[in-house]
Amino acid sequence: MTTNASAIVTIENRLGLHARPAMMFAETAMRFDSDITVQRSNQDSIVDGKSIMQLMMLAAVRGTELTLTANGPDAETALEELAELVNNRFNEDSVEGV
Amino acid sequence: MKLLELIVTNAIEPNLEATTRDEAIAVLVDQLITAKAVSADFRDDFIKAIIKREKRGSTGFGHGVAVPHVKHADIDTLVAAVGVSKDGIDFNALDGNPVHSIFLIISPEQKPEEHLEAMEAVFSNLSQDTFRRFLLQADTVEAVITLLEEADASTLGNN
């Protein structure tokens, strides 16, 4: 069964959505069959949540609000995990962030 | 942010002859030093930190592109160097393919937003087939600068 799910998250880690978090996000997204998109709230461009390059094009600094959308058989689980990753600040801010 | 606001025009190498990742990184850092964009005092620091970053996870994100980088506390202005390898270099890229376009970025540690804006500028263009193809075809520094100017003016196609 295909379902749709969406969630709004805010980037909270100091360095924003830089390469390492973008990679973690894309790697997590790729584990799911659902299509996953990410959009800066109030902006038109939508990027593929499974592409590091496209995620980097969001230039999501700390404080940026993002709308995550999943569409597919595992949409809800996918969004739960992705939202948790963002909300946990990609496990940064306690470790060295490069 | 525009590409020509971050790329130091005297640090563009359209015919990168380095054959390894570490060698390519050193060449590009040296170009930034020669161009007086960064201080030679930190040369080894930069190179070591950039290689360390690559070892933690390759910045070769696919499509023959890599963006080795370091955030450093002792610099004030974000600068980038560009190297194009016609033969391709093994960057341990995520898709396993050799890397042809290298954008090396050194940014101030205290300004993470600038780093993200630079990445946005770089990937908005490198994600386009047209830009990557033209970059590979550019044989001279002037040709690369022209391409960057066109990209900044958004006159390239969107595919």
Short description:
The complex is a heterodimer of chains A (98) and B (159). Chain A has 98 residues and is of the alpha+beta class. Chain A has helices spanning 19-30, 52-56, 75-87, and strands at residues 3-10, 35-40, 46-48, 65-72.
Low-confidence stretches of chain A: none
Radius of gyration of chain B: 14 Å
Number of helices of chain B: 6
Distance between the termini of chain A: 40 Å
Topology pattern of chain B, helix = H, strand = E:
HEHHEEEEEHHH
The largest pleated sheet of chain B is described as: 6 strands, mixed
Order of helices and strands of chain A: EHEEHEH
Please give the CATH class of chain B: Alpha Beta
Based on helices, strands and strand pairing, what is the structural class of chain B?
alpha/beta
CATH architecture of chain A: 2-Layer Sandwich
* Total DSSP helices of chain A: 3
| Residues in β-strands, percent of chain B | 15-25%
SS elements, strand count of chain B = 6
Neighbour order of strands in the largest sheet of chain A: 1-4-2-3
Which structural class is indicated by helix and strand composition of chain A?
Answer: alpha+beta
Q: Report the CATH architecture of chain B.
A: 3-Layer(aba) Sandwich
Structure report:
- The complex is a heterodimer of chains A (98) and B (159).
- With 98 residues, chain A is of the alpha+beta class.
- Chain A has a single domain (3-91), classed as HPr-like (Histidine-containing Protein, Chain: A, 2-Layer Sandwich), CATH 3.30.1340.
- Chain A is built from three helices and four strands.
- Chain A has helices at residues 19-30, 52-56, 75-87, and strands at 3-10, 35-40, 46-48, 65-72.
- Chain A has a four-stranded antiparallel β-sheet with strand order 1-4-2-3.
- With 159 residues, chain B is an alpha/beta fold.
- Chain B has one domain (3-151): 3-Layer(aba) Sandwich (Mannitol-specific EII, Chain A), CATH 3.40.930.10.
- Chain B contains six helices and six strands, in the order αβααβββββααα.
- In chain B, helix 2 (21-34) packs antiparallel against helix 3.
- The longest helix of chain B is centred in the C-terminal third of the chain and has 15 residues, at 112-126.
- The mean pLDDT of chain B is 95.
- Classes of the chains: A alpha+beta (98), B alpha/beta (159).
- Chain A binds chain B through residues 14-20, 23, 51-54, 56-62, 98, and chain B through 49, 52-53, 56-57, 59, 61-63, 65, 67, 69-71, 94, 112-113, 115-117, 119-120, 122-124, 126-127.
